[in-house]
Write a structure and sequence with these properties.
46% strand, 2 helices, 10 strands, alpha/beta
Length: 177
């Protein structure tokens, strides 16, 4: 199973390798071209991103800091972008729609804590350089390999939350509330 972050990271490695290869073959200083090109592409991507994910998806961005959803809140498809920080999702009192809701997290370093009530299915897909995960007491470490975690009965649960995580170093902890 591929997750969007895994595809993005793979594409960036391929593009970087091609640029460096062409630079070596044609004796071009790619360093002079890479930084401006990266800024231009990042700007285009930031402008187009809201249109690519759809009108009902929320995007939350923070450079340094924590993102916390708890108490009574509406779970919707969305994305969380951060450089360094922790994410806490407490689904105990949340209003979770029928079917599957997807939350994507893009970050460099941090922790993810999820509280899941009985009857709610949770799937966590993570791609990171280093991932440490614990879901309902089961521990798993991963180095440069995707992590796919599913709660028991995920496929048949009426209310399902899917968490796609892309980061460099990530700790994920999932507990029942």
């Amino acid at each position: 199973m591929r997750i969007p972050g895994q595809i993005l990271i793979g594409a960036l490695f391929i593009i970087g390798g091609l640029v460096l290869g062409f630079g070596a073959i044609f004796d071009v200083d790619v360093g002079v071209l890479c930084l401006p090109t990266a800024f231009i592409l990042a700007g285009i991507w930031l402008l187009l991103r809201p249109y690519l994910i759809g009108p009902d998806s929320g995007i939350r961005t923070t450079i340094l800091g924590n993102v916390r959803y708890d108490g009574s809140w509406q779970v919707t498809d969305g994305e969380i972008w951060m450089f360094v920080g922790d994410v806490r999702l407490d689904l105990s009192e949340a209003e979770i729609p029928l079917g599957e809701t997807t939350i994507r997290l893009f970050a460099f370093v941090g922790n993810v804590r999820v509280q899941v009530p009985e009857g709610v299915g949770l799937a966590v897909d993570s791609i990171a350089f280093l991932t440490s995960s614990r879901m309902f007491g089961r521990k798993r470490e991963s180095f440069l390999a995707p992590v796919h975690l599913r709660s028991d009965g995920y496929e048949t649960a009426e209310h399902r939350v899917r968490l796609d995580v892309t980061s460099f170093v990530r700790e994920i902890r999932v507990e029942r509330s």
